[in-house]
Each structure stands twice: as structure tokens, then as C-alpha cells.
Amino acid sequence: MKRRGRVKIDAEKCKGCVLCVDVCPNGVLALSDKVNKKGMQYVVVEHPEKCTGCGLCAIMCPDCGIEIEIEKDSAKRGK
């Protein structure tokens, strides 16, 4: 069974540095053309179906604006 994750981005914490976009091995994230309350473009989940839950984006985010959830079915795969 393939591991799947879900990325949650807090658009108000995002300053659009795109470090998470660059580090994602599956091209899940992209810079939006919209802006948050601070006037900064923010990152969005463009291809959620490609997320494996590796967490590299959350580790790379300097503003702690990304959370990763692993789907429950894929968490049981090793049991």
C-alpha cells in the first residue's frame, strides 16, 4: 500500500519563501497568485494526491506554517 499524507498550510504564516516548494520531491506545492493579510503571496497545495507525507516541507518551513497528517489507512500498513 502506498503511503499518503495530507498537507495543511497556514496561509497567514506563509511569507512565500518557497523553500517548501523547492524541497518537495513530488511537486505537491506551488506559489499562489493570491496574497495573505500581510500582502505576501502564499504557498498552496496544488497536487494533494501526490503527497506521501514525507514531511520535508514542514521541516523546511522557517515559519512553522505547515502541518502533515498521515492518512490512517496507510499508517496501518506495517501492522
Q: What low-confidence regions span 5 or more consecutive residues with pLDDT below 50?
A: none
The number of helical runs is 3
Euclidean distance between termini CA atoms = 12 Å
Percentage of residues in DSSP E strands: 25-35%
Mean pLDDT value: 91
The total of beta strands comes to 4
Biggest sheet strand line-up: 1-4
List the helices and strands and how they pair.
Elements: E1 5-9, H1 19-23, E2 29-35, E3 41-45, H2 56-60, E4 66-70, H3 72-75
Antiparallel strand pairs: 1-4, 2-3
Can you characterise this structure?
The protein is 18% helix and 28% strand. It is of the alpha+beta class and 79 residues long. Strands 1-4 form a two-stranded antiparallel sheet. The protein has a two-stranded antiparallel ribbon with strand order 2-3. The chain is elongated, with a radius of gyration of 13 Å.
